[in-house]
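Hi everyone, sorry if this is the wrong subforum. Our group has a chain we'd like a structural model of before ordering constructs, and none of us has done structure prediction before. Sequence below.
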Amino acid sequence: MNFRNLVAAIAVGVGTLATAVVAEAADKKVVVAYQTDALPSSVAIANGEFAKETGYDIDFRRFNSGAEIFAAIASGDVQVGYVGSSPFAAAVSRGLEVKAFYLASISGIDEALVVRNGSGIESLNDLKGKKLAAAPVSTDHYQLLALIKSLGLTEKDVQVFAIPQPEIVASYNRGDIDGGFVWDPALTELKKNGKVLVTSKEVADKGAPTFSAWVATSKFAADNPDFLKGFASVINKYYASSASDKSAWGPDSDNAKSLAKLLGGTADQQASALKNLTLLTPEVQASDAWLGGGDKAGAGKILKDTASFLKEQGKVSDVLANYGAFVTADALTGVSN
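Answer:
Right subforum, don't worry. Here is the predicted structure as tokens:
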């Protein structure tokens, strides 16, 4: 091969390699949706650790609710998102193919029904005739409806408004509604002029458990298993830190300040909100009680029970035979405290 031909051959080879590199880089782009909940792992959104650990170009986008995130997933705009079990159950019942690969939290005191001072509500027995609100198709909406049903009441007895959290706060402050079932930062805002009547954990104990989770489209999960494992490992790192190093998550900590900058509110409010979370270790998540076990997965059962309730309420038209296919413990393999 003469020199001219050799140069030409090298040029072709370099061009092919460059094209392959560009193509690989393009494949490693993902849009991830998050919400305003205070989670330890949100610090990794702020400092770029998710991108560093996974090697992906991550476009993080903030949403007000899981319902909005599922709409974005359905449109193809989002591949990974942080959602609650109620919009999750509704979405997959309508045919959306997603998988939960990490449980962000389970029913705790980080979500609650707060009633306004002067509303005349002192106990659950006082809810009849009152006006309450929750974000549409959220876990809070589901639990509020379940709570009303458990009291022998219907939406004819209690007016329930399905409105976004910012509108709940505004309506509450104006006195237009008597209470709201919310999460932070709305939870903190409502408590300034009211009190917690019942928590998400208490409603769960009454038979309506919920969870929040990181989900991925089934196609993205199948094509990018290493991304999910890397993403899960970062979450676990921050969860383990929040459990073992309390001083690193106090109101004066860099972590709390980082959360306040990303999510709003103050560092003190973020630190306080973190204390309300109920988190699970990877080992517990991977068990049959939650994400493991295939069709027997506990999280799948919660989704089915939620979907059944939503059908009773006319929120969804169909309930699937099993919801185990929408949860997976694969990303937790090899992940530990």
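For your construct planning: The longest helix spans residues 3-27. The first strand starts at residue 29 and ends at 34.
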